[in-house]
Structures are given as structure tokens and as C-alpha cells.
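G., before I forget:
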Amino acid sequence: SQTIHQWPATLVQPVGSPLSLECTVEGTSNPNLYWYRQAAGRGLQLLFYSVGIGQISSEVPQNLSASRPQDRQFILSSKKLLLSDSGFYLCAWSTWASNQPQHFGDGTRLSIL
Amino acid sequence: SQELEQSPQSLIVQEGKNLTINCTSSKTLYGLYWYKQKYGEGLIFLMMLQKGGEEKSHEKITAKLDEKKQQSSLHITASQPSHAGIYLCGADIMNTGFQKLVFGTGTRLLVSP
């Protein structure tokens, strides 16, 4: 069966520090991968999605970037964190086929001080 | 403004009572997901609807997509404490094959004994 892992579960970082959140999927090949941010009162917002290695689509302009160095690995990064980057970050995957549900990881709660 | 409106925002029901949560869009819902989230955790996939008039059930939860494909409802029969959580609807409103989803802000459900 397929599983998705996200780490760390929680992270407290100072403003201006770098960020690296990692997500890996097991039990499937060539998945679509997604990064979302969930902010209070605003629902889930799609940040990035990827349909293959090295292929990243950015949905909103922001202080973050994403990379997919391996088929089942998706990384969310920032060079300098802002206070507004605080939130709950969720990684998700779906099969490459269309019209299939997305399955989510347990999330990373990021607090910026 | 939110592309998907969920109502109510929060709901407290007595155990054993029925309840309905609504998800409404001004745009066509090419596909609609319902998820459940416990605070601080990832999203658990409940059901996916694609066709106008479609209805699906799982245990005591039933989801429907209206004929016009602009509104979905989630109905829980004989609620239990285990149903408590945040219910989120997510939808493909751009006909991307479920690759790009927008989400509602969620409905927080509490079930009192």
C-alpha cells in the first residue's frame, strides 16, 4: 500500500532563517505531488505541484520554492523565512492518472518567531 | 473571496442527531472531494463525486453533488463522537483532471454525548 511521510512534524524558526521541509511517498511510481499551506480561516491553498522529476508548477507568488530531486521526493524550501510564512504545511500525492483523489501527509506546523 | 463556500462554519450536535454540511461554488464543480481533518493532522479522504446528481455513501456518511454541479452536501446520520473534526470540501473548478484543487475553509463539527 502507498504511504506518505512528512517531516518534521513541528518546526520553530527565526525570521530570516532558511527552511527545508521534506515529503516522500512509498508504494507508487510517478505520482503527482503537491504542497499546500493551511492558514487559519483561509482553507487550504495550493502552493506547488509536480507531475514528474524536475517539473514544478508554482501556483502563487511567494517566498517559497519547491524541488523534486527524485520521483517520490518533494521538498519545500525558503532562503529567508518571513513571519507570514507561518502555517500548517501539507504534502499530498495522487496517481498520475486523471480524476484520482489526493492523499495527504500528516503536515508540518511551522512557527516563525 | 473564497471560491468554495462551506456552511455552516461550525456545528455542535448531540450524539445520535443527523446533520448536513454544504459546499457551494459559483463555478462548475468538475470534481468534488470531501475530506475529514482532526486538528493539527492531515486530511483523510472520504468521498469523491464527479457526475451531476451523483450520490455516494460510506457507513453513516452520504455525499451528494447536485445536478448543476455547483453544490455538494455531506450528510451524517446518527452522529457519533468519532465523527467530530473538520470537514473540508475540495474541488476542481478548472477541469484540470483533479490536479488543481481549491478548498473551502472547513466546517468544524463537535458531537456532544
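The mean pLDDT of chain B is 92. DSSP finds no helices and eleven strands in chain B.

More on Monday.
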